[in-house]
Amino acid sequence: MPTAPQTTDELFQALQENDRRPYGRTRTVTAEELVDAAEQFEEPVALVHALLELQEAYTYGSEPRKSPVVFARLLNLFDEQPDVFDDRLRHMLFWRFKWVGHALRQLPEVPLTGLRQWLTEMRDRYEKAGLGLQPYYGQAYQLAAHLGEDTALAYELWAGRTRTRLSDCEACEICERALYHLVAGDDERALSVWEPVLAGKESCQEEPARSVSYALLPLLRTGRTDRARELHLAGYRGCRRNPSMSREVGRHLEFCALTGNEARGLELLAENRVLFEEVDSPLDQLGFLTGVEVLLQRVETLGRGELPAAGYAGRTWTVSGLRAEVRGRADDLAARFDARNGTTAHTDRRRVRLERAPLVDSLELTLRARGLDDVTPVAAAPVAEPTARAAAVPDALPELVLRARALDEQGHPDARACWARLRTLVTARDYVHPDDPAVGPLVRLRADLLAEEASRAGDKDEFTVAADLHEEAAALYDDAGEPGQAAVCRACAVLATAENATEGADAAEAQAGDGAEAKVAALTAAHAAMVRLHEETPGLTPFQEARLLRLRATALGLRLQTSRSEEHAAPVFAEVDLLHAFAARHDIDVQVSGALLLRTSTHALSGDLPAAVTEVDALLDRLKTRGPAWHLPRTLGLRGRLQLALRDAQAAQADLAEGLRLAADWPADAVDTARLHGDLAEAVMHLGRPDEALRHLTRCAELELRGGSRTDAYCTYSNAAQLSLDLGRVEDCIALLDSLLAEPDVAAGELDDRLVAQLRLTRARALHAGEDLKAATAEFVALAAESAGWDDDPGSHAMIAAETAVLLGESGEFGRAREAADQALAAHALAPRYEQLSNCLRELARLQAQRQGHDGLDDARAFLDDAARVADEARTAEYEAQGRSLDTALAYEHGRVAAYAGEYEDALTALDKALALLGEPGEDADHAGEWAECIRLAGAVEGLYLERPAPALARLDPAISRLTAAGHRQEAESLASLATRLRDEE
To answer: What is the largest CA-CA distance in the chain?
Structure first.
């Protein structure tokens, strides 16, 4: 707190501000400071309010030891100065007897006699105050359940009584009743009792998150797996990183462990690492740690105890190490509670959870299908995608070296497995190179490994790294007396450098086309350099010469792809013909196939799609008879993309699906399985199958991530998140984005900041769609602040600031909404976003008039004046809106705002203007709907609010006839309903 409040008004304002903060250390410390400040005033009411805020912070901040101490001060104040407590403060005081009972149960150092004494104190106080005892019996039942006693009588004494004003909320009581049946082993009855909470009909501060966490396993046991999945996603979001709900987090970890989602469990554990330190409640610690142990035990049972796990601060943990630590602490806590309670209930409950077997083999919880193989330390290499056939890797070192080189010459995917094995052997401290002339010297093998590493870097578009490694490999090949291999590596380095030609260009240059021109020039020079290398290198083997020809053709193909110039097509065909003729003469099938692929691509780039299809059909026929088989998936993928370009989505889907089926036999990176999934997503979207498209997008992204193409992966995931949001799968969208934003490189700021902003923007929109207005607004406000510094992209800032303004308006913060709207207008002046700004300003006007009525009219009309200026600018720029006309939408909003403010004549005038701008309704449904809404609102204003039904009916009846004649029955029915109401009220 910057400065202590100097007056009670400042104190109450500070208390209100603190109440808006999330529970945690910041809110708690501020509450403590505000109590200190309140003690300086001689106004006990202020101190009471400050103490109530502090107790709430302790209670929901999981600090049960301190909550009773604060309440004792409040109770003393009540006893000494009861008149200070008005009805509201008195109600809060008696309500919080339950908070103290809950806090004392969480502390094993409080003796059982102390717990019972507090219940007696609560009963005495309630009776003295003339209050009903149902809340007392609720606390007595919860103590019995905590102790593990026979709860039947305590349950009946509580549940059979009539609720009072001080009873727990309906949602909390439903949870307690459901838990009673759950403990009795009746899953179905428990779920039936829980239904109003699980369906969102009853809620409170802790519900439905608490009930959801308990209901997950009963849902699985009764076969409701889809409901369990849905509630896990929504319920976890309601309790994550919340110290007062650490037990609930533990149950979500347990759910992951028992559904084959151990990897997600470890991810959620990392997200909640703060709970190891911030949970001060021993009972909450016990619940959390037991859930953690269930997860870690399951991972260790699967033989992955060496995996990293997020645990207590101050050291790094493996699954096995953390499990041992957690087990010791949780066992001790359970023993302490049992010793205090005189039962074995907590140890028994722990044992039941730890001995529970998985309930399903595998339940896909999120759009990221990840396994324990994906849980690797940050520095570890990407995990290879499993295939249906395993690569044959010889055991003998000389044979392994020779096989790797032979497979590399063929371009065979299995070469990578051999090189990976060799890299492990060669880097070992005890490696001894074989003395074998066929293998050659160690320097040559090191060159081979560098060249293969360079190729992998190039596949990931890491061109600078690739060029450097190729040059280093070329130097080693020179040392090994292999000039042909050195020439091939230098040619690869030249091509990688050319592909990287625009790396240093700024955004303005790229937009102006300078970047493309630079790349075309670089590729032209690269081709010339490769030709010279080819001509000047003696003793090339056919394989090496074919590689050089392929690189030459590739350089010119990339040049055509960059320039899209007709004059650049013929040189590509000429180089391809050279490559094809040479490869065919020497029976190098892999290069024959490569030449035909390049020819197909060149036809496509030149715009001759039919010729491209003819070429690819011929290539497929050849591949089926002569191979290589691993080229089939890529070639089918190419034909699928050509069919998409020809707008034959059905044929494209068939080719891509077949390509994906064949790709299963090969490593994903070798046959570009990720792209097949991405293209298939596009094809099935065209066929109207968005859910299938979503599956392919997420699979594509995960393969890109495994292959090390992290930026591509996040872009694909971003598209998947947007699609899931468009499909109404809000929780799926949020869970996916939460998982991505928790990735180490994102958290460390290593990913492109604009891409991360896009992920956060989609998440904020999903939170808004999921009706979490507070979280959505906070994220939008943060994004608006960040995007204000995007000098190169004011348009995006305009859009983000406009959306932020609307959310602030929905939150009732119209002052801040005005500031955000002004930011949006300033950015719009630099990069116009006419429709977005107009929509934003009109919506803000509507919200303010609706919330504040006549008091908000002037400010609402100020928003509409800004919208009018935007519409004028759009008209001058000859901008055509994609949706409603900006002028008609503005006129309608003037009418609606005036109506909200009670200015009914002004409303009618504005709506008549809107109708004049719209004209008569035609066949277009959207236009007819807009026209009908104007008529409806005008009829309601005139007939209901101005009490002039006759003119209103004179407006409505002809409109109903017009709409009916034009076939717009639904719109006509809404007007007919209003007309009927007006006639009934005449």
So the answer is: 108
